[in-house]
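So, can you check what follows?
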Amino acid sequence: MAKNVRRPPTRKELGLEERFTDKIFRPYALAIGQAALAWNALHEQLGSLFWTVSGGGGVDRRLRKWRSLRNDRVKRDELLALAKAKLNLLSDRDKTTFEEIKWILDSIKWIKLATGRNRTIHAPLASTPRTLDVFADTLFGNPFADELEKVDVLAEYRRVRDRATLLRDYTGQLAEAVSRDRPVWPDRPKLP
Protein backbone atom coordinates (compact mmCIF):
# COMPACT_ATOMS: atom_id res chain seq x y z
CA MET A 1 0.00 0.00 0.00
CA ALA A 2 1.29 3.44 -0.92
CA LYS A 3 2.26 5.92 1.78
CA ASN A 4 -0.11 8.75 2.64
CA VAL A 5 -3.11 7.03 1.13
CA ARG A 6 -6.09 7.90 3.28
CA ARG A 7 -8.96 5.57 3.77
CA PRO A 8 -12.49 6.89 3.62
CA PRO A 9 -13.90 7.89 7.00
CA THR A 10 -15.93 5.28 8.82
CA ARG A 11 -19.61 5.80 9.51
CA LYS A 12 -18.79 6.13 13.20
CA GLU A 13 -16.19 8.83 12.49
CA LEU A 14 -18.81 10.70 10.46
CA GLY A 15 -21.31 10.51 13.29
CA LEU A 16 -23.79 8.48 11.24
CA GLU A 17 -26.26 6.25 13.03
CA GLU A 18 -25.39 2.58 12.72
CA ARG A 19 -28.57 1.01 14.07
CA PHE A 20 -31.72 0.99 11.98
CA THR A 21 -33.72 -0.17 14.98
CA ASP A 22 -33.58 3.33 16.47
CA LYS A 23 -36.92 5.11 16.82
CA ILE A 24 -36.00 7.69 14.19
CA PHE A 25 -35.88 5.00 11.47
CA ARG A 26 -39.25 3.39 12.30
CA PRO A 27 -41.43 5.46 9.93
CA TYR A 28 -38.91 4.83 7.13
CA ALA A 29 -38.73 1.10 7.81
CA LEU A 30 -42.52 0.94 7.86
CA ALA A 31 -42.84 2.92 4.60
CA ILE A 32 -40.17 0.81 2.87
CA GLY A 33 -41.90 -2.38 3.98
CA GLN A 34 -45.32 -1.14 2.86
CA ALA A 35 -43.94 -0.11 -0.55
CA ALA A 36 -42.25 -3.49 -0.99
CA LEU A 37 -45.42 -5.34 0.02
CA ALA A 38 -47.55 -3.26 -2.36
CA TRP A 39 -45.08 -3.92 -5.21
CA ASN A 40 -45.14 -7.66 -4.50
CA ALA A 41 -48.94 -7.68 -4.33
CA LEU A 42 -49.13 -5.85 -7.66
CA HIS A 43 -46.99 -8.54 -9.27
CA GLU A 44 -49.09 -11.30 -7.72
CA GLN A 45 -52.15 -9.72 -9.34
CA LEU A 46 -50.25 -9.46 -12.63
CA GLY A 47 -49.61 -13.20 -12.21
CA SER A 48 -53.34 -13.72 -11.75
CA LEU A 49 -53.96 -11.80 -14.96
CA PHE A 50 -51.28 -13.89 -16.71
CA TRP A 51 -53.06 -17.04 -15.55
CA THR A 52 -56.45 -15.76 -16.70
CA VAL A 53 -55.22 -14.68 -20.15
CA SER A 54 -53.43 -18.00 -20.60
CA GLY A 55 -56.77 -19.77 -20.25
CA GLY A 56 -57.10 -20.40 -16.53
CA GLY A 57 -57.45 -23.96 -15.37
CA GLY A 58 -54.52 -25.70 -13.70
CA VAL A 59 -52.72 -23.06 -11.72
CA ASP A 60 -49.48 -25.01 -11.43
CA ARG A 61 -49.24 -25.71 -15.14
CA ARG A 62 -50.28 -22.23 -16.30
CA LEU A 63 -48.15 -20.33 -13.80
CA ARG A 64 -45.01 -22.46 -14.08
CA LYS A 65 -43.38 -20.02 -16.51
CA TRP A 66 -44.48 -16.94 -14.53
CA ARG A 67 -43.10 -18.35 -11.30
CA SER A 68 -39.83 -19.39 -12.91
CA LEU A 69 -39.06 -15.79 -13.85
CA ARG A 70 -37.10 -13.95 -11.17
CA ASN A 71 -37.18 -10.47 -12.69
CA ASP A 72 -40.36 -8.39 -12.41
CA ARG A 73 -39.71 -6.50 -15.66
CA VAL A 74 -39.34 -9.79 -17.52
CA LYS A 75 -42.61 -10.99 -15.98
CA ARG A 76 -44.38 -7.88 -17.23
CA ASP A 77 -42.85 -8.39 -20.69
CA GLU A 78 -44.09 -11.99 -20.66
CA LEU A 79 -47.60 -10.88 -19.75
CA LEU A 80 -47.67 -8.46 -22.67
CA ALA A 81 -46.26 -11.10 -25.06
CA LEU A 82 -48.86 -13.62 -23.85
CA ALA A 83 -51.66 -11.09 -24.32
CA LYS A 84 -50.46 -10.36 -27.87
CA ALA A 85 -50.28 -14.06 -28.69
CA LYS A 86 -53.50 -15.26 -27.03
CA LEU A 87 -55.97 -12.44 -27.52
CA ASN A 88 -57.90 -11.93 -30.74
CA LEU A 89 -57.68 -8.19 -31.26
CA LEU A 90 -60.57 -8.33 -33.74
CA SER A 91 -62.88 -9.25 -30.86
CA ASP A 92 -64.12 -6.25 -28.85
CA ARG A 93 -63.73 -8.17 -25.61
CA ASP A 94 -60.15 -9.28 -26.32
CA LYS A 95 -59.23 -5.86 -27.69
CA THR A 96 -60.46 -4.24 -24.47
CA THR A 97 -58.57 -6.81 -22.39
CA PHE A 98 -55.37 -6.15 -24.32
CA GLU A 99 -55.74 -2.37 -24.10
CA GLU A 100 -56.25 -2.55 -20.33
CA ILE A 101 -53.28 -4.88 -19.80
CA LYS A 102 -51.14 -2.56 -21.91
CA TRP A 103 -52.41 0.45 -19.95
CA ILE A 104 -51.43 -1.19 -16.63
CA LEU A 105 -47.98 -2.13 -17.89
CA ASP A 106 -47.44 1.27 -19.48
CA SER A 107 -48.58 2.97 -16.27
CA ILE A 108 -45.84 1.17 -14.38
CA LYS A 109 -43.40 2.78 -16.85
CA TRP A 110 -45.07 6.20 -17.13
CA ILE A 111 -45.25 6.84 -13.43
CA LYS A 112 -41.77 5.37 -13.08
CA LEU A 113 -43.08 2.97 -10.47
CA ALA A 114 -40.27 0.44 -11.00
CA THR A 115 -37.70 3.23 -10.61
CA GLY A 116 -39.44 4.42 -7.46
CA ARG A 117 -39.53 0.89 -6.11
CA ASN A 118 -35.80 0.49 -6.77
CA ARG A 119 -35.03 3.77 -5.01
CA THR A 120 -37.19 2.69 -2.08
CA ILE A 121 -35.54 -0.69 -1.71
CA HIS A 122 -31.94 0.09 -2.67
CA ALA A 123 -31.15 3.61 -1.44
CA PRO A 124 -29.15 3.64 1.79
CA LEU A 125 -30.42 5.92 4.54
CA ALA A 126 -28.50 7.65 7.30
CA SER A 127 -29.01 9.93 10.25
CA THR A 128 -26.80 11.96 12.52
CA PRO A 129 -27.29 12.51 16.22
CA ARG A 130 -27.11 16.27 15.58
CA THR A 131 -29.83 16.49 12.94
CA LEU A 132 -32.22 13.91 14.37
CA ASP A 133 -33.39 13.45 10.78
CA VAL A 134 -33.17 10.64 8.27
CA PHE A 135 -31.84 11.31 4.79
CA ALA A 136 -30.62 9.49 1.70
CA ASP A 137 -26.98 8.53 2.28
CA THR A 138 -25.18 9.91 -0.79
CA LEU A 139 -21.71 9.77 0.74
CA PHE A 140 -20.38 7.04 -1.56
CA GLY A 141 -22.40 7.98 -4.64
CA ASN A 142 -25.15 5.38 -4.51
CA PRO A 143 -27.24 6.32 -7.58
CA PHE A 144 -30.54 5.52 -5.86
CA ALA A 145 -29.62 7.70 -2.90
CA ASP A 146 -28.50 10.47 -5.27
CA GLU A 147 -31.99 10.44 -6.84
CA LEU A 148 -33.58 10.86 -3.39
CA GLU A 149 -31.25 13.60 -2.19
CA LYS A 150 -33.57 16.52 -2.88
CA VAL A 151 -36.96 14.90 -2.25
CA ASP A 152 -39.03 14.07 0.80
CA VAL A 153 -37.94 10.46 1.24
CA LEU A 154 -41.00 9.35 3.23
CA ALA A 155 -43.34 10.98 0.72
CA GLU A 156 -41.55 9.14 -2.10
CA TYR A 157 -41.90 5.79 -0.33
CA ARG A 158 -45.59 6.44 0.29
CA ARG A 159 -46.08 7.47 -3.35
CA VAL A 160 -44.64 4.14 -4.48
CA ARG A 161 -46.88 2.28 -2.01
CA ASP A 162 -50.02 4.14 -3.04
CA ARG A 163 -49.47 3.81 -6.78
CA ALA A 164 -48.59 0.13 -6.56
CA THR A 165 -51.70 -0.48 -4.43
CA LEU A 166 -53.90 1.41 -6.90
CA LEU A 167 -52.55 -0.61 -9.84
CA ARG A 168 -52.79 -3.85 -7.85
CA ASP A 169 -56.46 -3.25 -7.13
CA TYR A 170 -57.22 -2.40 -10.74
CA THR A 171 -55.27 -5.42 -12.01
CA GLY A 172 -57.29 -7.68 -9.71
CA GLN A 173 -60.55 -6.14 -10.92
CA LEU A 174 -59.47 -6.61 -14.54
CA ALA A 175 -58.49 -10.25 -13.95
CA GLU A 176 -61.91 -10.82 -12.39
CA ALA A 177 -63.68 -9.17 -15.34
CA VAL A 178 -61.69 -11.14 -17.92
CA SER A 179 -62.60 -14.41 -16.21
CA ARG A 180 -66.35 -13.72 -16.64
CA ASP A 181 -68.49 -14.67 -19.65
CA ARG A 182 -70.09 -11.24 -19.58
CA PRO A 183 -67.50 -8.95 -18.09
CA VAL A 184 -68.27 -5.67 -16.43
CA TRP A 185 -65.12 -3.70 -17.12
CA PRO A 186 -63.72 -1.81 -14.15
CA ASP A 187 -63.15 1.91 -14.48
CA ARG A 188 -59.54 2.85 -14.97
CA PRO A 189 -58.19 4.56 -11.90
CA LYS A 190 -56.80 8.06 -12.02
CA LEU A 191 -53.15 7.88 -11.15
CA PRO A 192 -51.97 10.40 -8.56
Notes: The chain has one domain: 22-178. The chain has a mean pLDDT of 90. Residues 22-178 form one domain.
